[in-house]
Amino acid sequence: MEAVGIITEYNPFHNGHLYQIKQIKSFFPEKCIVVVMSGNFLQRGEPACMDKWIRAKQALQNGVDLVIELPVTACVQPADRFAYNGIEILKALGVSKLVFGAEHANYDFKAFARQVDGVKGNFKKYDEAYAATFQQAVTAKIGYDVSKPNDLLGLAYAKANFDLGEAIELIPVQRIQANYHDQKLDSTQTIASASAIRKNYAQGNVQVLKSYVPEITFNDVIQNKLVDWDDFWPLLRYKILTTSPKDLQYIYGMAEGIEYRLQQQLEQLPVTASFDEWMHTVKTKRFTYTRLARLAITILLNLKQNDINTWNNSPYIRLLGFTSRGKKYLNQVKKDPVFPIITKVSKKSKNTILKADYRAGKVYQLITGEEQDLKKAPIRNFK
Amino acid sequence: MEAVGIITEYNPFHNGHLYQIKQIKSFFPEKCIVVVMSGNFLQRGEPACMDKWIRAKQALQNGVDLVIELPVTACVQPADRFAYNGIEILKALGVSKLVFGAEHANYDFKAFARQVDGVKGNFKKYDEAYAATFQQAVTAKIGYDVSKPNDLLGLAYAKANFDLGEAIELIPVQRIQANYHDQKLDSTQTIASASAIRKNYAQGNVQVLKSYVPEITFNDVIQNKLVDWDDFWPLLRYKILTTSPKDLQYIYGMAEGIEYRLQQQLEQLPVTASFDEWMHTVKTKRFTYTRLARLAITILLNLKQNDINTWNNSPYIRLLGFTSRGKKYLNQVKKDPVFPIITKVSKKSKNTILKADYRAGKVYQLITGEEQDLKKAPIRNFK
Fold first, then answer.
1. Where does ATP bind (chains A, B) (predicted)?
2. Contact by Cβ (8 Å): A15, A46
3. Which run of H or of E encompasses B313?
4. What is the pLDDT of residue B123?
5. Per-chain mean pLDDT for chain B
6. Which end of chain B is more exposed for a tag (fewer CB within 10 A), N or C?
């Protein structure tokens, strides 16, 4: 059996995601759909609005066959690393095609990746973010605008695939209706961005979401209090105020003395200030909101370089759930697994390769009360 | 002018404390009453129920002339160190007498101190707390029972005074009515223990407290939500879950691998478990509740050996408030100060000698919202 892969966050699973699954099924009705999904903390530096188990269930009940967790050390990364880690897992699972949304599905991402091999941003521009200087260098090289978020991510997938021997066929799909950063819901449409959905939830517009998410997601939204940064903010604030800059320096992603600024700005704010208010006092041209938000997550989870090394040296496949087709595909993979396949967290693994994921789960649990790892078995959706 | 000293916590200031002040005034009507008071975290390992400024004000309005903060590094210590640090400050202030409550005011504490010089507990008894073995050794040596909490503290004061050259005259005063550990209010009396007062507050019996505290304390109790361990518990829990045992090991007071037990017991508890429930799962004969509670504070505040060293190497006198008599006494001391006198926290001192106090203030502020150090001036009570 062949498999088609998606790298995603499903925060939460909405009609746009469902549309993508349906497209894949119409093209490849017999193939297994494999999803690599962020766990409880996401690439852009925020907690997931619902935990990984709830979101995996949403995916499985909407046509996905196999859900793999992108470990927190692999996920809370700049886009290039995030993409690389996702592609690496899909390759290890023997997935032959990657479907991804793009603002310009007509671009030849594979060719672009070859062209920009070795291209780097100008790191000397100290008043700019590295990502911005990299984008400029890329555009100058290939002559096309790749500044849109999904195009950029597509290029990152293509580059990772190039670096990993082009084992996977890339299938960009034109994004429809909602834009990635859209914050408003359009009542003439049925697809909205995940951030518009979360924003409306936060503003109390819950019933209206029914039009933009599958029924199962809507039920989950009704039954759970969606998690956001403000839930973790008291913990992050406490952590930054009680840790010396010397110790903060060892947090993954800390650079250029920003630890002093993080702490100083925080000390000056009233206790009533929100996460977002703090971020805006810290943000600079060089340290963008997203980069700082990601750093805030690594501080919150106490992630250090050795946690990242553990993942890089010992990657694994962490199973969150499967359908009967997913199980069949998995059995095929298991005959000759490239990475170990983890179906449950043992006393040993929680202190070794799964240490960072386990810690992230414990922190997430402080807000939701739900155990994330111990005694959890992959979801079986065999209906 | 001469001064009489008290070492205390005022958690909160109650009628028993007022009675002691009145006794001192009747014996020494012209002397300055100097109090060394714990700040926002207390000797027995708990947060103060109201912040140090509120409690200093209560003291000043009830007859105390000068309130000095016992720094957090000097205060969150076993009784012997706590006593030593308090006596050291009083001596540096040139205080000539120390008044303290005792269950046996007839004991000759000065003589006892000389007798037990060099006496140590049997540290090899691994199933007992050190404090218990020390008490046994002391009783064996002097032939009197000093197991009652205030007698024990009196002996600790006497020992510290002995070690510091017996500069201070010791005046034990018979404790009346309430016992230290009493949890109930006795309606036929007007004095209750501070813990009985806090316990009744926690149970919602607020109006009844009017009989046991001066008016100003009662007003403060009405106007403030009293702080307790459960307020800080989510932060402590987060800290323990996200810190490796290897790093926890560097916390002041951590010993004998207890860091593993602290973490393991916590991981197994539901998120709904309270601080007290966790403590009871961790507690052993060797690690008593009080020792663990003190350890919980040093973890919460990230206190390490170098913080304690900073205090030991550079002790100081941190002024919280004074009356006109207190001011006069202070001017006398200032002519030839033994330790630097701190009236406000500067940008420099918050990063050097006051680092630990500043951090403790920031953590306390997370709960109350009130800044504890920056821009705070000593209270002047000149009426």
1. 7-20, 101, 150, 175-176
2. no
3. helix B305-313
4. 61
5. 93
6. C
Q: Do the chains contact at A359 and B242, CB–CB below 8 Å?
A: yes
**Cα–Cα distance for residue pair A290/A286, rounded to 1 Å:** 11
Domain map of chain A by residue range? 3-223, 229-306
3-state DSSP assignment of residue A23: helix
- The answer to whether the CB of B9 falls within 8 A of the CB of B42 is yes
Residue entry with tokens 């093209």: A27
Listed residue (A250, A233, A345, A203) closest to A296, CA to CA = A233
Partner residue facing A369 (CB), from B238, B243, B271: B271
Please give the structure tokens belonging to residue A121.
């941003």
- Which residue in B has a C-alpha nearest to residue A368's C-alpha? B271
Dihedral pair phi/psi, residue B100, rounded to 5°? -145, 150
Type of residue at A348? K
Distance CA A349, CA A358 (A): 9
B72 interface with A at CB cutoff 8 Å: no
C-alpha dihedral over B101, B103, B108, B113, to 10 degrees? -80
Could you read off the pLDDT of B114-143 as tens digits, one per residue?
Answer: 998 888 776 666 666 777 788 888 888 888
CATH topology of domain B3-223: Rossmann fold (3.40.50)
CA distances from B203 to A6, B227, B275 (A): 55, 13, 17
Asked whether residue A127 carries a pLDDT value surpassing 80, the answer given is no
Q: Which of A327-336, B53-62, B111-120 has the lowest mean pLDDT?
A: B111-120
Taking the Cβ of residue A243 and every Cβ of chain B, the question of whether any pair is shorter than 8 Å is answered with yes
Which amino acid type is present at position A261?
R
Q: Which amino acid is at A368?
A: T
pLDDT digits (tens, 9 = 90+) for A20-42: 999 999 999 999 999 999 999 99
